[in-house]
Design a protein that fits this description.
Blueprint lengths: L1 H4 L9 H4 L12 H13 L10 E4 L6 H13 L4 E6 L6 H13 L9 H13 L5 H13 L2 H18 L1 H17 L4 H11 L6 H7 L8 H13 L4 E6 L2 H10 L6 H27 L5 E7 L1 H8 L14 E2 L6 H19 L23 H18 L21 H13 L11 H19 L6 E6 L2 E3 L4 E3 L1 E7 L5 E9 L5 H15 L8 E6 L8 H8 L1
Parallel strand pairs: 1-4, 1-5, 2-3, 3-4, 10-11
Antiparallel strand pairs: 6-9, 7-8, 9-10
Helix pairs in contact: 5-12, 6-7, 8-9, 9-10, 9-12, 10-20, 13-14, 13-15, 20-21
């Protein structure tokens, strides 16, 4: 029982897990589609190639996100880049794409350095003759340590050198290169300035002049295009879009409701978002020929059908015919899907099972080939829970009907202990801006976990929580996202997001607020998305901050 408790039957690839190598991979599941996808990427990885976008379809639980995760691992072995755009909170397509780009650039490459530092290393190596790999990394580190005057001098040198090799592109994208270099700085104020420009917030006229920017601010669409080119200076990369189904499904369901004043506004906004996604994807694939980006879209078949009826349908030639992930296909694949998870748990606890899938007997998998990964993992999770409740492990020959968990008991002793702990709590560090994410952010995550633990959702409503919702080490976009998934309504989702902001510096405050707004996808006409911002000090009274708060 101790060993079985350790088994991980989680059926979702959460944001915080995506950038880890898949531990429980069964390569044969949809392996032919993966091979075809990778072969196409390797074949057409050059700059200015005429490339088509990929559409990856499958029902909920078919393993679409896991597929992308395994592709990312494969490409990392060749030191190719990967950008993942989580569309869970999409409101404006280009702002969401940009935020996903910035998040992914902070994720480590195979050398363990953030992808944006790998880009800077490649740029430096291409401009300095006979530079060894180790020297390139050293120069990137030294670049981060430079004072403002020296940094400006090096930035101008890099821009001038790039202009000698790529005149037109450097003229068009130089501001993005400047911002990436600034973001690499160890100086917090300088790094925040570069981050703010890349985020589309813009910079002040004085900073524009100081650091040689040609413009104070650019559209998210233009910055994404520029980042595609800048990233291509290093190696080819995949730009993937995932988790866009909730907003599309919400619009689809709303379109069937009786027209009222509130629902009409929500329908209009949802429709605009969908059209923005469709148009944005077409535009990206069209512009990808100028870089080494390969675009892949992962969604439900119903989602792609809706998008195909929008602007994408007029540009169908820009996409390959969709590839649809199949069910497990073979009984042995179902068994291996579970065996690899049990093996890790049993190895950790020193337990030797009588057979690899114990306690799930081989005959239990006889009909599993018709299932998708999520369905069989849910069955195993339910049986694991039943064994824990019964305090006994018995072998499973057929999937049982599981009785839901009883609610945890509430006693006077717990109330007493709670009051004692509350009285002893050290609250001063909760408002320390340097510990914004670690302390207050951590407390908010715990509060959300407790909320779900103490309030079981009824019927076929799944509740889950993401506690690392993209972002960088210094800029987590949200501290938690609580999801309610309504299975009987086509997996419609409601999102409740939360973010603590204690930073007083106006740029730091703006960057965090803008990221939270974009990641949560809030809009006054979208009632299925909510965002709670927790502050302590009064925000800056500057016009840019006021404008952002008003939005």
């Amino acid at each position: 029982l101790t060993a079985l408790k350790q088994a991980d039957f989680n059926w979702t690839v959460k944001t915080e897990m995506f950038w880890e190598d898949p531990v429980y991979d069964v390569p044969e599941i949809n392996g032919d589609i993966k091979k075809e996808f990778l072969d196409d990427i390797y074949l057409k990885g050059g700059m200015n190639q005429s490339v088509l976008g990929w559409i990856l379809l499958g029902k909920g639980g078919a393993g679409k996100t896991h597929f992308l995760q395994s592709v990312r691992k494969e490409l990392a072995g060749k030191d190719w880049g990967f950008i993942m755009v989580d569309m869970s909170g999409v409101n404006d397509f280009w702002e969401t794409a940009l935020l996903g780009f910035i998040d992914s650039l902070h994720r480590p490459n195979m050398q363990g350095m953030p992808q944006y530092q790998g880009i800077l290393e490649a740029i430096i190596k291409s401009l300095v003759k006979k530079t060894e790999k180790t020297e390139g990394r050293v120069l990137v580190k030294k670049l981060a340590e430079l004072g403002k005057k020296e940094l400006i001098r090096y930035i101008n040198h890099i821009i001038n050198s790039l202009g000698g090799k790529f005149k037109l592109q450097t003229q068009k994208y130089q501001d993005t290169v400047r911002a990436v270099i600034l973001m690499n700085s160890d100086d917090f104020a300088v790094s925040t300035l570069g981050y703010s420009w890349l985020q589309g917030l813009g910079i002040e006229p004085s900073d524009k002049k100081t650091f040689g920017f040609s413009t104070e601010k650019k559209r998210a669409m233009d910055i994404v295009e520029a980042l595609c080119w800048v990233m291509s200076l290093r190696k080819p990369f995949v730009l993937a879009f995932d988790q866009m189904d909730p907003v599309v499904m919400e619009h689809h369901l709303m379109s069937g409701t009786a027209p009222g004043e509130d629902s009409a506004d929500e329908q209009k906004r949802s429709k605009a978002i969908i059209e923005g996604i469709a148009g944005g994807l077409s535009t990206l694939v069209q512009s990808a020929a100028g870089s080494r980006a390969r675009i892949v879209v992962s969604c439900l078949e119903a989602t792609w059908q809706i998008l195909s009826n929008k602007t994408v349908s007029t540009n169908a030639a820009r996409f390959y015919a969709p590839k649809t992930l199949r069910n497990l296909g073979k009984q042995e694949y179902a068994g291996r899907l579970i065996a690899v998870r049990l093996h890790q748990a049993y190895k950790k606890t020193g337990f030797t099972p009588p057979y690899p899938t114990y306690p799930f007997k081989p005959e239990a998998f006889s009909n599993a080939r018709h299932l998708f990964p999520r369905e069989i993992l849910k069955c195993c999770y339910n049986y694991q829970e039943q064994c824990i409740r019964n305090q006994q492990v018995s072998e499973l020959t057929a999937w049982p009907v599981i009785v839901p968990h009883p609610p945890p008991p509430v006693t006077g002793e717990l109330d007493k202990l709670f009051l004692e702990l509350k009285a002893a709590a050290l609250t001063a560090q909760l408002v320390d801006e340097e510990k914004e994410d670690e302390v207050l952010g951590g407390l908010l995550k715990t509060a959300c976990r407790l909320l779900l633990t103490e309030n079981r959702t009824p019927g076929r409503i799944d509740a889950s929580i993401n506690v690392q919702v993209s972002g960088t080490k210094n800029y987590p976009y949200l501290h938690a996202r609580v999801r309610l998934v309504y299975q009987d309504e086509g997996d419609r989702e409601e999102h409740f997001c939360i973010r603590a902001i204690l930073r007083i510096h106006h740029r730091a405050f703006q960057a965090r607020l803008k990221a939270a707004m974009t990641s949560s996808g809030i809009d006054k006409d979208l009632k299925f998305r909510r965002l709670l911002i927790v502050c302590h000090a009064k925000p800056s009274a500057g016009p840019a901050t006021k404008e952002l708060i008003t939005r």
